[in-house]
Specification:
heterodimer; A: mainly alpha; 2% strand; B: 252 residues; alpha+beta; Sulfite Oxidase, Chain A, domain 2; five-stranded antiparallel β-sheet
Chain lengths: 253, 252
């Protein structure tokens, strides 16, 4: 490490002699494990929903009760009235197994990441908005810049802007905890030991409905996240999250 | 290779070895305390094992949530069942008077019970939720004899680890560990909401294990067998569910 001094254009706004990478190894590794797990959870979760695309509020709900809403999709179960003349094949066995296994890996990875956030100062340094950045002026300028799809400057490749920070904080400390909680609240075994986890959400079926909507928010985050990466420069952002250095590849050529 | 990268390599090698040894020891301890499910192999074995082990550590004695009478669902949704066999139709025509359930395996006094005989033992009820892995659920009052009572009658032997239970429907069988088998809410259920258990809900006899999802609650029970080893039954994965790609443990 550090034997080769980074050769950088002196006029560049990028820090010229930075020792530490844009993203630490731990952030990069946990990021990609989370990515793989999230995609596995999304696919398997969608498969499980297909077996009963009806959502309810409260403790119970089934084909004989009125749903809160029903997704306009075919089902993998014959007894669900969908309006489609066919039944999809049952995929719940592997879907459930993959869902829970990916959830385990994601939760353990997330724990490691969250602890490191607090211990390394990553939270304070890179995620909590700086003093004064929450003022109306800064926020509205950021929002306008985002709405205009303005490409970030090169300097911004080395830090997060305030909207990014707020979004990441929301995803890490609100959406992920909520999706884990609402998921656990559907487990008969888990709630037998911790019944308040399901009653606080309004019942098992409410937990399922909440789980679905929080997942939709996470998908929305994923879509915006990927869109912003393309906007900011796909190659440099991907390189930063893989090798740790946004410009490393360019310098060698 | 530089010094620092060599040091890193050696350190990560040591860490991997320690991790591997640690896992080996952990697996041996976990097995000793009954924390490894029979379907622990394959790509999903890690997830199945983590779920089963953590739930066993957290929920060995916890009770499934019970509800008030006013929360009972208007209609206990009967899920699809296979067309009944001729034998089932014959038994149903006789109002299940000739229905028999055999209890055998690692027991001191193997026995056969009729539904009426089961009814002569302590009658217990609980208002619990039946949740299907598909996502739907209903709440109903289940009445039956605690499985622990039946196991006490036949005298389970000390090496017993699982209770395997079979439906009259071919290829429908499941098993539970002793924590669930001896759990006070695990019933051989013959009543639902104050009436006979309807055939659609598993009548005349269903194994009701309220801390696990619907498919572990096998309908039309005809045989229970106590064992210390699931390897010799079926494909050795513990029950019919893993043979069909579903988890053996379904507390989630």
């Amino acid at each position: 490490m550090g034997e080769i001094a980074p050769v950088l254009n002196s006029t560049s706004a990028v820090p010229a002699t930075t020792e530490s990478p844009r993203h630490s190894a731990l952030v990069r590794v946990t990021h990609w494990i989370t990515t793989v797990c999230f995609i596995a959870l999304l696919i398997s979760g969608a498969e499980v929903v297909i077996s009963h695309p009806r959502f309810y509020w409260g403790e119970t709900g089934n084909n004989l009760t009125t749903p809160l809403f029903q997704l306009p999709i075919p089902s993998s179960r014959r007894l669900v009235q969908t309006g489609y003349g066919y039944v999809l094949p049952d995929q719940n066995g592997w879907s459930r197994a993959l869902h829970f296994e990916a959830a385990w890996v994601l939760v353990l990875t997330g724990l490691l990441y969250t602890i490191s956030l607090l211990v390394t100062g990553h939270l304070r340094r890179n995620l909590l908005p700086g003093k004064g950045n929450l003022s109306r002026g800064v926020l509205s300028r950021e929002i306008v810049d985002h709405l205009r799809f303005k490409r970030p400057t090169e300097a911004e490749a080395w830090s997060y802007n305030v909207l990014q920070r707020l979004t990441y904080l929301f995803v890490i400390f609100v959406l992920f905890p909520m999706v884990i909680w609402s998921g656990l609240a559907m487990s008969l075994g888990f709630v037998s030991a911790f019944p308040a986890t399901v009653t606080l959400l309004g019942g098992e079926q409410s937990a399922r409905t909440i789980h679905f909507f929080v997942s939709l928010f996470l998908v929305l985050f994923l879509l915006v996240h990927v869109f912003m990466i393309f906007l900011a420069g796909f190659q440099s952002r991907m390189r930063a999250m893989i090798t740790g250095r946004p410009g490393a590849g360019k310098e060698r050529t | 290779m530089t010094n620092s990268s060599r040091r890193k390599l050696i350190l990560s090698g040591l860490a991997a070895t320690a991790g591997g040894l640690g896992l080996g020891v952990a697996a041996r301890i976990a097995n000793k305390y009954g924390l490894i499910p029979p379907d622990h192999g394959g790509i999903f074995g890690l997830g199945e094992t983590l779920t089963y082990a953590s739930q066993r550590l957290l929920t060995r004695h916890s009770l499934a949530r019970e509800f008030s009478r006013s929360q009972i669902s208007k209609v206990p949704f009967p899920n699809e069942i296979a067309p009944p066999s001729e034998e089932f139709n014959r038994l149903q025509a006789g109002r299940f008077a000739e229905w028999r359930v055999t209890v055998d395996g690692l027991v001191d006094r193997p026995a056969v019970f009729s539904i009426d005989q089961l009814k002569s033992h302590p009658v217990r009820s609980h208002i619990t939720q039946l949740a299907c892995e598909e996502g739907w659920s209903y709440i109903a009052e289940w009445t039956g004899v605690p499985l622990s009572h039946v196991l006490e009658l036949v005298g389970i032997q000390p090496q017993a680890r699982y209770v395997v239970y079979f439906s009259i429907e071919p290829d429908w069988w499941e098993s539970i560990d002793m924590a669930d088998a001896l759990h006070p809410q695990t019933f051989l259920a013959y009543g639902l909401n104050g009436n006979e258990l309807p055939v659609g809900n598993g009548g005349p006899l269903r194994l009701r294990v309220p801390r696990q999802v619907g498919y572990k609650n096998v309908k039309f029970i005809t045989r229970l067998t106590v064992t210390d080893n699931l390897k010799k039954i079926g494909k050795g994965l513990g029950s019919a569910a893993p043979e069909a790609g579903y988890a053996w443990y379904a507390g989630i």
